[in-house]
Design brief:
heterodimer, A: alpha/beta, Rossmann fold, elongated, B: Lipocalin, disordered N terminus
Chain lengths: 359, 239
Amino acid sequence: MKYLRLMCLFVLVGCSSTPRPPPAVSEALADTELRIAPTVAAPLMNISLHEFASPLALDDSIYLVDSQLRSVEARLIPFKLRQALQRSGYWGAVRLMPGFDPAAELQLEGAILASSGTELKLSIKVTDAAGRRWLEATYSDAASDLDYMEEPDLAMDPFQDLYNRVANDLSLALAIKSETELNEIASTTTMRYAAGLASNVFGGYLRKEAGGLVLAGLPARDDPLFQAVQRVREAEYLFTDAVDEHYQSLHRQVGPTYAWWRYYNHELLRGNERLERIDATRGATKGSWYAVERVYKTFKDAKMNQDALRELTDSFDRETAPVVTEVAGRVVELSGSLQQQYALWRSILKDMYLEEIGR
Amino acid sequence: MLISLIIPASRLMSCLLLKRHLTFLVALMLFLPASGTSEESGFNDFQINFSGHWELDYQLSDHASEKIRRVYQEAKSKLEREMQRRGSYVDPSAFNLSSIVGLGRLAERIAQATVLDIEQDHNRIVINRNDDFALVCDLRFMQAQRSVLGAEACYWEEDQLVFQIALPDGLNVLHRLSIARDRSRINIATTLMLRGVRYPFTLNRVYMPYEPGEGLFQCEYTIARQTTCTLGSGGVEPE
């Protein structure tokens, strides 16, 4: 078995420096400008992006360093997309959340299918409150040496084209909706939220059909129970903003290290390709001590970079600072991971609603 | 013998095809150790615990220059014996004697750590080495894995934990960790193998436990607050 394992390792390393096949030209060369909204149209839809799923962490990256890296990507990449959507001006609040956000009109879910310094491939799905699909597509982009001409910085992402393409496709999906449709989605979102707090009171305003949720009616605006729901929903926005601030903090803190990791990863992959070419034409280089030591030094540098990233991500997971939010005259302190905080917050909101209606 | 199995980089296309066909086989073979017997995988309730603070025991550790000289002499004697046995001239370049020095010097740099800080639980082991990258092993998924450059694996061999790094140009590095029953010493045997070099080179580095003590400052790194250090029992001084 030991020899089998060794064989496997050698087979892996034998192929490890294989350059990836170049992506389609339309993906690699086309610069996509972000479409900016000419005027602010009402009503503005709010979008909540969920942390992305990262199947890579399970299937391809069994090393902890990698899985932590994927865990950071699952939060950083949607944050980049959030920025593009926000800049486009087509949307209301664009927030990044740990999971499903019942207060938002649109939910954007994604999965990272491939991610390295040279390639990014995402699967994106956008659904409205009624359950209708706005967008479902796979996007990929390849970074070139030009994208890494300068040292990485937070504002410049080598895969900005990809984020712009998603934002543009979504704004096109918005453009074909009538104002009536948009109003209906906004109302459906409100009633879905209300039904989530008190299904016995508000559940009847929504009907489930094959195409998704259908709005059956709306309560009176001065309905005290409905007004209580609106107040709880306002409180929800305070919390979602606080959660969103956490992701901004992650972006500021881990973003630069991640950008360096990508830069390094790109350099290593490209460097490998160059080494392959040099070896093919100048056999003398191969096997020299200089080449051997350079290979080890490059490996060591990359590993030390991974160490730094692991330390940062460890700290983030361990030390998610408590969220302190003042809601309706009370201060709520939440601790634990973001996911735990979010779950706790949902139960607090439900309690608040019961208090509001005096039960 | 094993080293010759490394696929030449120039055979890129055949490698790609081979890779495709071997994917299933490799995946299967890699799966076997993980689902094998506890004796083989070493998941014997994790009785082997390397955790703690360790510093180099210079007395018991190999000294690179001496080891290089010894391995060189042994190889040279072997060459001479071979010549005597055959009764004819044997080309010394076939024995690659000069490469022993290069390999030894590289091993010295790779095994340079003088302090180890090892964290181990049921899920993983992290061997932090001063001025070097950490050796990290996910104890739940001990499989060979492509890394940024080359491939890596960690696995148990009896009571020894082995880290194997296979890099381009035929360089292979093995770190073999073992610990004394009384936990008085850890040995890391670092072996370098290079394609075209007949002799692997092994450097043993022995570490003994030490207590890091509390120190004047207790520092902790957090993303939100960066590094914060506590002085004694009260004051907090940001770094």
